[in-house]
Amino acid sequence: MRPRVEPERGLLFFSQPAGRDQLTLDVELLTLAHLDESAVAELLDKTEAHAVDVAFSRACHHATGGNPFLLAELVVALHEQQVPFTAAGAKQVAEITPPQVARATRARLARLDLPAAALARATAVLDQLGLNILDARITPVGNGFSLDSYHVLEDDGSAITDRERLMEIEQALWGSLQRPEEAPLAVSRRATRQMRVFKTPTQIAISVDERNRRSVLELTAADRPGLLCDVGKVLWEERVDLHAAKISTLGERAEDVFYLTDREMRPLNEAAAERLRVHLSEALDRRLA
Question: Residue 69, Cα to own-chain centre: how many angstroms?
């Protein structure tokens, strides 16, 4: 289904697969176990002639989530850029994104086609086009699809009426659906001066909806380009499934609600919820720094 634009309402609609396992095949899926901090430290020690600083190994674990493949690619990039495996070098770990890691991440997102990944891709496209996302709804509609609607305006607050502009938006969204491995996963557009003036502290609350057997993530933060893209990436990196979302922008303040489960369709346990809260807070605050 092609993205559909309703210019008089500033709405964009498109549907896409929401599930991971749309085909039943006679295959065996092998998943690499994620490494804990001590295992990451042990592997890093083996690559160096001396013991690696604890702060550095902890930064590498945080940057890769303990994924063995991403860790290996990160080590290669660190050596290429001559980053010391010390406490001082730990500060540079988060700034390094090896091209191989970026390509592998995009490819994996494309294969999984998770709603969280789709949120990251779609909102990155809209943000890069200079659009303001005022409201959004991500709703599963069955048969492995979700209906995603975004209420958007131009950066100056005007409605989108120009036919060529509408076509540009449609083509960009359609391209992100057809070639997700090429879709951007970062937003380079900077926040406006007005956005930077208003300092809305980031607030994150995660609770359990026992009735619907899911977790509810409530986020209040300063609105800025790339906010939803960053949220989608963090959800994917934490291996959290996004089932629905309600996104609202009130002036320079974003108030968003996300309905989540783990990969086993269960509410997040306390450890996973706290890990998600910390990761999301760090990711959002890092972009504001």
Answer: 19
pTM above 0.90, yes or no: no
Return the axis-axis angle of helices 115-128 and 227-237, rounded to nearest 10°: 160
H-helix or E-strand spanning residue 13: strand 11-17
| Burial status of residue 138 (CB atoms within 10 A of its CB: 0-12, 13-18, 19 or more) | buried
pLDDT score, position 205: 96
Q: Give the start-to-end residue ranges of the domains of the chain.
A: 4-18+105-288
Which pLDDT score, from 0 to 100, does residue 56 have? Answer: 92
Output the DSSP codes for 120-174: HHHHHHHHHTTEEEEEEEEEEEETTEEEEEEEEEETTS-----HHHHHHHHHHHH
Are 139 and 254 in contact by the 8 Å Cβ rule? The answer is no
Sheet of 131-142, strands arranged across: 4-6, 11-17, 145-154, 131-142, 241-250, 253-261, 214-222, 203-209
With a cut of 60, say whether residue 30 has pLDDT above it.
no
User: Which of the two residues, 286 and 91, has the higher pLDDT score?
Assistant: 91
100-143 pLDDT, tens digit each: 555 555 555 444 446 777 788 888 888 888 888 888 887 776 65
Exposure class string for 180-194: b at 16+ Cβ within 10 A, else e: beebbbebeeebeee
Is the Cβ–Cβ distance between 221 and 202 less than 8 Å?
Answer: yes
d(CA 209, CA 225): 30
**Which neighbouring-strand residues pair with 209?**
214
Which backbone phi and psi does 288 adopt, to 5 degrees?
-85, -20
